[in-house]
Amino acid sequence: MGIGGASIMDIGRKGMMASRAGVSTASHNISNVNTEGASRQRADIQASNATPAGRYVFGSGSEVGTVRRINDEYLTRNIHAENRKSGNYEEKDFQLMRVEEVFNESIAQGMSSSVSRLFNDFRKLSLEPENNALRQTLKESAQAIVQEFRGTYGNLKKLSDGVDARLEGYIKEVNSLAGQVASLNKQIQEMEVRSGAPNDLLDKRELILGKLSEMSGATYQLGDNGQYIVSLGGYNLVYTDRVNTVSMARSGEGVRIMMESNPQPDITDRVNGGKLGGLVEYRRDVLDPTMNKLNLIAHTLVREVNFVHRQGFGLDGKTARDFFSSDGTVENAASSIDLSDDVRKDGIAIAAALEKGSAGDNRLALMLANLENEKFMDSSTKTIGDFYNSMVSSNAVVIGKNRQLKEHQDIVNSQLKEMRESISGISMDEETMNLVKFQHSLDASAKVIKVADEIFETVLGLRR
Amino acid sequence: MVTHIKELIIVLNDLRKLYGHIYFILREEQVALQSVDSEQLSQIVARKNRVLSAIVVSDGRRQALLERIAEQVNGPINLSRVIEAAPADLAKFLRRLQKSLIRLVSEVRHINTVNDMVVEHSLENIKRMRMLSSAASGSLSYSPKGKIR
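YS: structure for the whole thing
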């Protein structure tokens, strides 16, 4: 075939089609500039096969090869991996703030000061053991402690119920997202067979995988057939176009997360990222231990005060009576603590004397006051007040550390998104040069940060 | 001693201003890190160096003044002891200054720790990205022991 009029027309037609594909891809990019998860596409225009004509080989113009997504696989995977962490820190931060509110002593009187006040009132009673007004004040202080325990435990229980409700919501969301990935896996495979790379669907699947990672900490890998396999807690959540849903079950150990496969594994302790993992870790590491410790404090207070109180005599000469009441179990101590019936009815039942009928005997009131300094808690290393304070301060450390991690994670996520946005796909050399430049700035920054920290530490000596 | 305490108040006030300044620089550093802005980051490092040098100078003056006050009160000194020894009006002022400085320094340390974590994380990330891009360009080679060069 010569390079006749028809061929020239053909070259022109191919060129126009290639150019139209380029314009159409550019329009697609512009119209999707605000679409979440949409990656830029590029029409790869390549030379058509040359046409041999006798001794010569004529070029036959250009045509569109493929429309490729300019998307850095590594960055996308990295963003999803960071999403797992940020979902986790964000959820914990949200929940920890609520624990902080429960224990924020500046809002209410606070448990710590209520316990101190009770022991102080025993001390005051020891100065005037027959004073009825002091007995009334002591009763009020004890009643305040009862309310503090019940109120604090009630608030923590509400948080715990809130965690259950949130878990339920997240599990629904995880199942819905997993279903969408499975459906997209199927659609993408069908379209790839029919008409090549379905870029918009690939973008959509990537976006949903990102959400799923953030929500559940799920990880994924590409299977042989181009379909993603999503794992949660070491089990397949999505395998090609099939989904194993996740469910919630209540047991003696509290709420558990189950994978609805055969058999049904309990994956609660294996979910360790995303919002779901954040909730599980928060409950396991902060909420449950805090509720247990509060119960232990209430139980110890009831047991020790009652033990001493039963040895003494009230103003009415009666003995062997409790000061507090509770149901006797550790796990219900903070919610069942109350004043004993005798003490609630009349302040004269409060024992201050060690011997019957000895007016002015204050020895038992002193023994009760001295309980404040007895180390009953934590293998006899802490007083009740110390134990409570260490519980509050260890929670504060967890809250502070998590806040730092969350802030750091927010910046890292924005940075990675910015990096992905800046990928032009045109010049690898230019992108590498930019990376090197940024690395140098980071190196310089890292050195100054370390020096700065040392300087700041010196100035913190002001505290002393 | 009152003269020294008054000088100490001026120095602590300078430190407070410098810490306020560095607080904003650290916030700007976070923005530069987020937006992968190398030039901005380099400028921030230079500005931070200047403010840090000023902090070191002021802190040196603070410590020298504390030593002079210590000679007059016989015994080891810290700001809380200066407050105890100061006349009421100055003590009140010093207490407020101490509180505000501690709060500010704690906040600055918090942001600095966060930025430190971000910088370390970013460096790791960039190293991995560079390794991947050199692998993609085919220039990656292995030593006989299998280490990537």
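YS: worth flagging: The longest helix of chain A spans residues 132-195.
IM: good catch. Also The CA atoms of residues 340 and 359 of chain A lie 24 Å apart.
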